[in-house]
Design a protein that fits this description.
Helices cover about 45% and strands about 10% of the residues. By secondary structure, it is an alpha+beta fold. The strands form 2 sheets. The chain has a 5-stranded antiparallel beta sheet with strand order 2-1-8-7-6, with helices on both faces. Strands 3-5-4 form a 3-stranded antiparallel beta sheet. The structure holds 6-diazenyl-5-OXO-L-norleucine (DON).
Length: about 300
Amino acid sequence: MNYEETLKEIQEEVTPLFGKGKIANYIPALAKVEPNQFAMSLQLFDGQSYHVGNSDQKFSIQSISKVFTFTHVMNLYNESLENRLGLEPSGDPFNSLVQLEYENGKPRNPFINAGAIVLSDMLVSKYKKNTYEEMLKYIQKTCDNNLISIDEEVYLSERKSGFKNYSMIYMMKSFKNIKNDINNVMEVYFKLCSLRMSTNELSRAMLFLSNHGVDPITQEVFLTQSQAKRVNAVMLTCGHYDASGDFAFRVGLPAKSGVGGGIVAVIPGKMSLCVYSPRLNSQGNSLIGTKALELFTTKTGFSIF
Ligand code: DON
């Protein structure tokens, strides 16, 4: 397979879509990025990687951080989610409050905001004040790179404008589904969303999920085979919020998006991918990123189905 050629073809084929979709502007600092960007990276088990566009351009990982939060909690709590969140697609936007209230403060899944906030609370219960530092070390280990850091401006902007996220955590606290101090938990949640990574770094970070939980290059064990299967299953069913069905239909891969414009995707037994393009479709997923991944599975035949 000529991956270099395939990535170039994809870049050419998505170019007419530049201008479509909108940049996330509900976090003021995110609204400042140059909208017409595109990068895509592919990471293989033998250490080879292929890239197109500016694959070293760092961007705000936003909800892609929910994958790290979920994998870390799965491992730390040995797969037990303590009955504090579900594993079903929400069918609602990522920051919906309605469902959370009528389901008694128990989020539908780990990949909507409320779910990741509960997971952040579980992390704070274990690591206390060191939670963010422990998570940063973990994320750096997944991509074998200690140059990952936070975008301070995005972090402060999220904290200042995260009214809906605060509403969710207060509501969950009222249902006794948050055990720690609200500000400590939100600090962790916002900081993880505000990390900056490139498609190169994110595709590398996802490699363990393509290889049953073990990084095939460093041999680091992040998850058991069973845990990796579970995380990938939830990425397939819930990784794109209320567009998860549509994404599975078009692309056919476990994947997770973020409002920064990134999408990571996993091809079990083969490789991991990341695509970046900041203009979003109406459900908050990268418009060009979704198209690029659809083209990739169509051209290579590498969907999981
Ligand atoms: O909590 C928020 O609203 C953002 N920090 C993350 C949301 C996000 O990326 C949802 N994604 N598609």
